[in-house]
Amino acid sequence: MVVGAFPIAKLLYLGVKQMSKPIANRIKAGARSSDFFRSYVCLPPAQLYHWVEMRTKMRIMGFRGSTIKPLNEEAAAELGAELLGETVVFLVGGGCMVLEYSRQAANSRRKEEELSETLSGLQTQIAELTFTTETLSAQLREVNRQLLSFPTPTKK
Asked: What is the CA radius of gyration of the chain?
């Protein structure tokens, strides 16, 4: 079951990614044209990303005390716009996953409620049938008792 679902999930992911790419591209274009957007939205995450990436690379190579130079403004703006675009794609994909999960959970909950209602109905029917059986059993005992109390006619 999981094997059959995987290609569909991959296809849906690619569809979501393709649908959110124009939004990401529009955000990138806005980041390139707006100074405010560039300065306060794109540059700080890009510089932080560059700092973490370079720090990690330096530690892996064994350079522990090296200082890291910040990116120039143009490269940082480009990297920040790219990061922002990928974040949008990721958020759209994550949102789709959350929506699908909540839909599946609602379906599961609805099925459980239907099963619970069916089970409750069956238990009610069993209780009614038990009561009917007990009533019929009591009536049968009463009829048998009455038949035993009548004198039986003797043949002459």
From this structure: 37
Contact of 46 with 79, CB cutoff 8 Å: yes
Classify 105 in phi/psi space as left (phi over 0), alpha (psi -120 to 50) or beta.
alpha
63: left (phi over 0), alpha (psi -120 to 50) or beta: beta
Spatial separation of the C-alpha atoms in residues 50 and 70, rounded to whole Å = 7
Q: What is the pTM of this model?
A: 0.61
Would you say the C-alpha torsion 123, 126, 130, 132 has a positive or negative sign? positive
In the chain, which ranges are continuous DSSP H helix?
Answer: 2-33, 35-37, 43-61, 73-149
Length of the chain in terms of residues written:
156
Give the pLDDT confidence of 4-25 residue by residue, as tens digits.
556 676 777 778 778 777 877 7
Q: Of 156, 137, 153, nearest to 145 (Cα)?
A: 137
Crossing angle for the helix pair 73-149 and 2-33, nearest 10 degrees?
140
